[in-house]
Every structure is written in C-alpha cells, then in structure tokens.
Amino acid sequence: MKVILTEKITKLGNIGDAVEVKTGYARNYLLPNNKAMRYTKENVALFEAKKAEIVARHENAKKAAESKVDAVKNAKLHMIRQAGDTGQLYGSVSSRDIARELKEVAGVNVESAQVLLGSPIKSVGVFDTKIALHPDVIVDVKIYVAQTQDEIDALVAGKKLTFGTKKVEEESVSAEQSRDEAAEEKVEEVKEEEKTEEAPKAKKTSKKAKAE
To answer: Which of 26, 57, 88, 206 is the most exposed place for a label (fewest CB within 10 A)?
Structure first.
C-alpha cells in the first residue's frame, strides 16, 4: 500500500514522503495512529494544505521528547529476575518490561516499539539498548539484570558476577557426604539389630551347653 507519511518514521521516511508499505502495517499501525495517509490525489492536496501544521506538530513533539532525555538517562532500569546456576533467566526481559519499568522509575511513557532492544534479554548481566522518545530523539540506556538488588549494585559498580561452579560443587560434595553418612548410619543400625537378634540365641546355646 502506498501512503504519505505525516510523521518521520525511522528507517521508513520523513514527513511528506510517499512510500510503499505492507498493507497490514499501514492498516494496523500507520493509519490508525495518524502517522500516515493513504496516497490519493485528494490526500496529496490535503497534506499540502496542512503541511505547515503537521511540521509544527512534529517539532512540538520533538521538543517534548527532548525534555524527557535527562529523565531517561538517569532512570535506574534494574530488572530483578530469577535465574539458574549458569545465569540464564527463567523467562526473559522484553521491550514491554523495559517500557513498564521506565514508566515506574522515571514517569516516562513509551510504547514497547520505542524500546529498540531487538531480542529479549535471557541472561543476567548489563545490556545496552536505546529508547526512541522521538524519531529524532534517541537515548542510549543500560539495562541491569540480576537476581537480587545486591547483585544489581555490583553490576552498577562494574563488578562481574560469578556463577557458582564452586558453590554447586560444594553442595554436591555435601550431598554426597550426607548420603554416605546416612548409609553408614544405616549399616550401623543393621549391625545393632543383628547383635540384638543374636544375643538371645547366644544365651540359649550357653544354657544348652551347661545342661549337657
């Protein structure tokens, strides 16, 4: 479908550009959000008549976005998640999660599409991404993901988290020791039971020998 852009769209075009896009993208996103108009002679004329107004609206939106840059830069995007022994998350951190966190900690509303994350985060660590407050206002941010706030603080301080091969080994050895100890206790219990059973037999044998 051919449309006229009424907003600058990253990687698509500037205000007033006539571009070909997928029909679904136009119908589900561009047109209902007033980011584009269907390309027709009537709409071309309408756009030209309203171009100054549209450009002014664009500039106002850009200024509004610029006013939020500091809030986004200073936002503590700390995501506490459960993870396994290797640091892999039980789940992931998505663009939607980051947009929600940004609203909670900085009061800045963005859509998940404005979080230029790419693939969801699936491990503990520090991750770089961008927040597109406006097509012309894109802010670099860091996402800190860990299991506890103490681990988050360590990441913020530039420290690396270690995932407990040693700890796991210690736990494994401890478990083996516990199993061995339990087995030894069981053997001792069996020996005691055997002694208890053999004691009456020994007494009977002794009495029989005396009688003879």
So the answer is: 206
> SS3 of 20, please?
strand
User: What count of Cα atoms within 13 Å lies in the side-chain half-sphere of residue 105?
Assistant: 17
For residue 108, the cross-strand partners are none
Q: Contact 113/133 with Cβ under 8 angstroms? A: no
pLDDT in tens, 75-93: 999 999 999 989 999 999 9
Domain segments of the chain as ranges: 2-66, 70-163, 166-194
pLDDT of 174 reads 42
Class at the top of the CATH hierarchy for domain 2-66: alpha beta
User: What is the topology classification, in CATH, of domain 70-163?
Assistant: Ribosomal Protein L9; domain 2 (3.10.430)
Whether the full predicted model's pTM is greater than 0.85, yes or no, is no
Sorted by sequence, the CB contacts under 8 Å of residue 96 that are 6+ apart come out as 112, 115
E strand residue ranges, 119-210 = 121-123, 125-134, 137-146
User: How high is the mean pLDDT of the chain?
Assistant: 83
167: left (phi over 0), alpha (psi -120 to 50) or beta: alpha
Distance from C-alpha of 55 to C-alpha of 59, rounded to nearest angstrom: 6
